[in-house]
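Task: sequence design from structure.
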């Protein structure tokens, strides 16, 4: 079977290519025999295994644990502890079982003479290429503590970016979910009890009441079938997302959602520019940086655009010219990138763009609740108002018919 790989030499130079092996483990072993540190490896037609670039480091470990691991390691090294002593201290103090297990293996490898970067590269599902590359440069240049501090700072920024987006979307999600639950509960448990009462009324029921009663009767009779259908559709949707066409359609719809589309776009732009900036700072070429970033971004629309840009850069075109006419990359971004290319400070321009879009996300999250709150309250009021009218109107009609 043929495998693709990305690896690093002992001097930190990135290598990529393919090789034949019976399994992924055998392929990794053969690369290590060539004195290469394996960073990512997968089957020829698959995506590279290491996809945690968006987390800038540790996979399956909480964002807080990632930051604390990096910060504490830098602090203890700066305080004069040896690398093994620092790792041993982190292992004894971290509450994360996953991280504790990984750090234990790092201690063993470092004690046996491996560099920290080489030890981390064995855990390609845990440490990203960005993390390993920065550590490798720090070890070779004697600036490991500074590089770890830099990584921790980027981890914190990435964590804050994701937290702000989640927080902004949490409020409308909770409100809409509560509305659906309340409406469904009233339709299933309250309205059916009123059906018998209303049937004794010798008056014509209002159309709105008839509609709600029909819905309630349907849910009582076929509610389990409806629930089963919802579950089946959800499963089918998750399966359909595995196909490239459906995934691309869904990802594109995310970027066009009313009100929050700018928030989502700016969040992706912040992550893309920050990842490329870090990779360039760690010594990786622009071509490799774009390729790695494309694999790190979950949205297939941005991934496709980055892959096309990477292909153009490989042919000698500038990144700024390739992004000029791309729909989801603003003109300001391509012009700033062009300035960085002309001045030889592309990583700094990208870092500026990352900070700019992070500020945009911050402002958007602060304003989103203000914009959505009245609209959501109005929506809830309309739904509950219709329910109230549906219940009260027949009672008023009946009492009115009793008057002489």
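Answer:
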């Amino acid at each position: 079977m043929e495998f693709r790989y990305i690896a690093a030499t002992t001097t930190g130079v990135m290598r990529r290519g393919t090789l034949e092996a019976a399994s992924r483990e055998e392929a990794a072993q053969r690369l290590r025999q060539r004195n290469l540190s394996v960073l990512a490896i997968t089957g020829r037609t698959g995506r590279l295994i290491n996809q945690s670039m968006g987390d800038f480091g540790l996979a399956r470990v909480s964002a807080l644990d990632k930051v604390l691991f990096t910060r504490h390691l830098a602090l203890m090294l700066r305080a004069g502890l040896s690398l093994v002593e620092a790792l041993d201290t982190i292992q004894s103090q971290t509450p994360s079982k996953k991280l504790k297990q990984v750090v234990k293996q790092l201690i063993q490898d470092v004690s046996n003479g491996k560099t920290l970067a080489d030890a981390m590269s064995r855990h390609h599902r845990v440490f990203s290429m960005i993390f390993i590359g920065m550590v490798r440069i720090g070890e070779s240049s004697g600036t490991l503590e500074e590089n770890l501090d830099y990584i921790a700072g980027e981890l914190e920024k990435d964590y804050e970016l994701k937290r702000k987006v989640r927080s902004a979307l949490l409020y409308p999600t909770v409100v809409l979910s509560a509305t659906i639950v309340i409406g469904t509960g009233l339709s299933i448990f309250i309205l059916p009890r009123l059906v018998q009462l209303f049937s004794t009324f010798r008056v014509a029921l209002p159309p709105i009441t008839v509609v709600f009663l029909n819905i309630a009767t349907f849910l009582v009779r076929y509610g389990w079938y409806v629930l089963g259908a919802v579950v089946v559709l959800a499963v089918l949707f998750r399966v359909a997302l595995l196909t490239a066409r459906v995934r691309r359609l869904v990802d594109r719809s995310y970027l066009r959602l009313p009100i929050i589309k700018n928030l989502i776009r700016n969040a992706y732009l912040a992550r893309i520019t920050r990842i490329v900036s870090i990779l360039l700072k760690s010594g990786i070429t622009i071509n490799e940086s774009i390729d790695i970033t494309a694999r790190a971004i979950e949205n297939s629309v941005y991934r496709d655009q980055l892959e096309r840009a990477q292909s153009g850069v490989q042919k000698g075109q500038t990144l700024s010219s390739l992004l000029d006419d791309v729909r989801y990359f603003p003109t300001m971004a391509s012009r700033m990138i062009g300035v960085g290319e002309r001045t030889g400070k592309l990583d700094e321009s990208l870092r500026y763009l990352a900070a700019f879009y992070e500020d945009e996300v911050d402002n958007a999250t602060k304003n989103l609740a203000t914009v959505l709150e009245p609209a959501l309250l109005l929506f809830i009021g309309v739904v509950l108002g219709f329910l109230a009218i549906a219940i009260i109107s027949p009672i008023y009609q009946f009492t009115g018919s009793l008057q002489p």
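The longest strand covers residues 2-8.
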